[in-house]
From TrEMBL:
Keywords: ATP-binding, DNA synthesis, Kinase, Mitochondrion, Nucleotide-binding, Transferase, Transit peptide. It comes from the Eukaryota. Gene3D superfamilies: P-loop containing nucleotide triphosphate hydrolases. It is an enzyme of class 2 (transferase). It is found in: Mitochondrion. It catalyses: thymidine + ATP = dTMP + ADP + H(+); 2'-deoxycytidine + ATP = dCMP + ADP + H(+); 2'-deoxyuridine + ATP = dUMP + ADP + H(+). CDD domains: dNK. InterPro entries: Deoxyribonucleoside_kinase, DNK_dom, P-loop_NTPase. Its main location: mitochondrion. One of its GO terms (cellular component) is cytoplasm. This is Thymidine kinase 2, mitochondrial. The gene is tk2. GO terms for biological process: carbohydrate derivative metabolic process; DNA biosynthetic process; nucleotide metabolic process. Belongs to the DCK/DGK family. It comes from Xenopus tropicalis.
């Protein structure tokens, strides 16, 4: 008998909380407890907890908020390719990073401007990235599972942080972005259920970046990818820098595309929280 995706998500997620497949830190424990208490072990019925719920007409409460999976990783690590792979999955909505918007907002290219002069345009780009990420996080979902590329968290903890730590963002800009970020996280629902981290070497990303040849990114040196890589590792693997909003599934993404796709197929269940 075929079990609906949401029901399987429910069963597996509850089961996997006890496994060691994730890199868990102290900050993720409360999230796990909330998931565990919210998900029934045999169906997609919510029994209270982290999700808002409504009556299904039979007296039972059903999930109204979908499971959110964020695919994280360095620039050109293969996130879009990963989302492409899963894009035909039934009961799954996929949201790629809105790079097209970052390259063209009412005729302006904040991504290009930031790479040309990060001191001047870092705040501009990151304010817009934060808005577009918030838009995706809060989009009402019609499917039980939603997968998005990166998140409002990596925009802040990786990219804003990198600009600031490298001395390319004035303290006042960093303070304003932090105020915005903290307000958003406190007052809106940006909760995440699983982070899939595509772990790559900066050298692998550098080769893929050159192959992709996005005009704005021609100026990116290998050192920049090292900086982003280290921030990701501190956040999601060592878990020493910022709060981790969800359990983390780490995938070695250095392998060739065919092999990655094979891996995604073989591990479909754990990647989609089934
Ligand atoms: N596993 C892989 N092996 C080789 N090339 C890859 C692999 N994954 C992605 N690519 C290529 O590398 C480039 C960047 O991949 P992409 O999925 O756009 O990365 P991201 O979304 O993380 O920036 C693209 O040209 C893509 O076709
Ligand atoms: O918060 C952010 C998020 C992304 N960027 C940059 C990094 C890349 O040049 C593009 C898109 O990233 P991909 O990894 O290729 O998807 O946007 C940023 O500057 N700030």
């Amino acid at each position: 008998m075929s079990v609906p995706l949401a029901a399987r998500a429910c069963m597996r997620l509850s089961g996997r909380i006890q496994t060691s497949a994730f890199h868990l830190g102290a900050t993720t424990a409360p999230v796990l407890r909330r998931i565990a208490s919210a998900l029934c072990s045999s169906c997609n019925i919510m029994h209270g907890g982290m999700f808002s719920s409504g009556s299904a007409g039979n007296g039972l409460k059903h999930r109204e908020k979908s499971t959110l999976i964020c695919v994280e990783g360095n620039i050109a690590s293969g996130k879009t390719s990963c989302l492409d792979f899963f894009s035909n999955t039934a009961d799954l909505e996929v949201y790629k990073e809105p790079v097209a918007k970052w390259r063209n907002v009412r005729g302006h290219n904040p991504l290009g401007l930031m790479y040309q002069d990060p001191n001047k345009w870092g705040l501009t780009l990151q304010t817009y990235v934060q808005l577009t990420m918030l838009d995706i996080h809060t989009k009402p979902s019609i499917s039980p599972v939603k997968m998005m590329e990166r998140s409002i968290y990596s925009a802040k903890y990786i990219f804003v942080e990198n600009l600031y730590q490298s001395g390319k963002m004035p303290e006042v800009d960093y303070a304003i972005l932090t105020e915005w970020f903290e307000w958003i996280v406190k007052n809106t629902d940006t909760s995440v259920d699983l982070i899939v981290y595509l772990q790559t070497s900066p050298e692998t990303c550098y080769q893929r970046l050159k192959k992709r040849c996005r005009e704005e990114e021609r100026v990116i040196p290998l050192e920049y990818l090292y900086a982003i890589h280290n921030l990701y590792e501190d956040w999601l693997v060592k878990q020493t820098s910022f709060p981790v909003p969800a359990p983390v599934l780490v995938i070695d993404a250095n392998k060739e595309l065919e092999e990655m796709n094979r891996h995604y197929e073989e591990n479909r269940g754990s990647i989609l929280s089934l």
